[in-house]
DNA sequence: AAGTGGTCTAGACCACCTT
DNA sequence: AGGTGGTCTAGACCACTTA
């Protein structure tokens, strides 16, 4: 029987998942920047699907904190201001201190080896100036720390915040000397974990976060010309419930 | 021209928001219990809407952590096992310690008065055995602590976890003597904040969380046996404390 | 007063079951 | 095979914003 609709069997996964993955990647990659309108008709054409999967994907991304949906007004990439950055890094600092402290308690020697291996790859990527690989290795470093803790829930929260901050980094970048400092901070964290020094590991992780926060705020305050989208309007921050 | 559809002007908000609110309330109230299937056709009939708003609401609730959606298999109320409870309370303990410690630093005298007022109302509700009011006042107590910190992002995370645990409490309840213990723990937190003793406030809040976690696990008398799914974890995260 | 875009319905398609 | 229910499309309705 001939199918009325698409004969392509491009159904490896559900459509709304692929749409959500695509939009998420574009937000993290900086293709869609914070504050940008995400119009359903445009996305429908671009991704060759109808409105329903797009709308479901946007709802899901709102749940992840990457998108804000205002009733009858549509979706925008979550706008990020200095306050939100500070709040997120405050939470990140608390969680990362927990991760590092827990790692100092329970990490196996193999896991510590793996941390060091990732750290070396990160070092290489920085030397080569390979920005995407740099971001990926940094992500792996902190993900492994989270996994060692065994707390998936905490890791989920942390990952969502990381995605938001990656979007910021893609828009504003790092300050010139931040990269070499990051390496030193990672080494201090690894050193503390290896020494099984919980307090030092917690402190090192927290400081790593604080300095990253300071850096991103400095970078972001370098006035990026307002893009040619619509007027800023008011910030809506429609917090659910 | 006559409207083809409903002429009722029952459009105070969007449909998918009302559906999400309804389902969320029912999960928290225990009408829909963890693990229960949420079938779209049933919800459509029950709530008198079509599938699209229901599906969008489910996606949103998945983002909030109350619902799990499996591709081509549908939605279920998020199943909760002992591991998830421990993970959530671990995060809660960290966040509540932060909230209480921050409150000890920056709470105004008026805010502390308000905390005490809520505490008294909670006391009254417990004496009267008014369970819904009890839950509501307890929620207010911890929400105010979160608001004092000024960190909305942390508060959002904490609120989501609170919703999940309220669903658990609605299903399993408290142990007999837990209520009076809660009052004492809240008083200790208030006392530490009033004394501006950061470390004591953090410790009191963390202990409050840990005891609540222990209580709910006992009430649920959950055996964390691995279910029919695969068991990838080899090393169990040493049962904390 | 159009137009744009968000929202919702009805129905078709199709994946995963049961029998 | 048949049924149940998840998924997607097409199109209608409607809120908000242009001019």
Describe this structure in words.
The structure is a homodimer of 241-residue chains. Chain A is 67% helix and 4% strand. Chain A is mainly alpha-helical and 241 residues long. Chain A folds into 2 domains: 12-77, Arc Repressor Mutant, subunit A (Orthogonal Bundle), CATH 1.10.10.10; 82-222, GntR ligand-binding domain-like (Four Helix Bundle (Hemerythrin (Met), subunit A), Up-down Bundle). In chain A, strands 1-3-2 form a 3-stranded antiparallel beta sheet. In chain A, helix 1 (15-29) packs across helix 3 (51-63), helix 4 packs antiparallel against helix 9 (198-220) and helix 8 (178-194) packs antiparallel against helix 9. Chain A starts with 14 loop residues before the first helix and ends in a 21-residue tail after the last helix. In chain A, 34% of the residues are buried. The model of chain A is unreliable at 1-12 and 223-241 (pLDDT under 50). The A-B interface holds A 13-14, 16-17, 52, 55-56, 59-64, 71-72, 84, 87-88, 90-91, 94-95, 98, 105-106, 108, 149-154, 157, 161, 239-241 and B 13-14, 16-17, 21, 24, 52, 55-56, 59-64, 71-72, 84, 87-88, 90-91, 94-95, 98, 151-154, 156-157, 159, 161, 233, 235-238. The first copy, chain A, binds a DNA duplex (19 and 19 nucleotides) through residues 3-5, 11, 14-16, 39-41, 49-53, 55-56, 71-75.
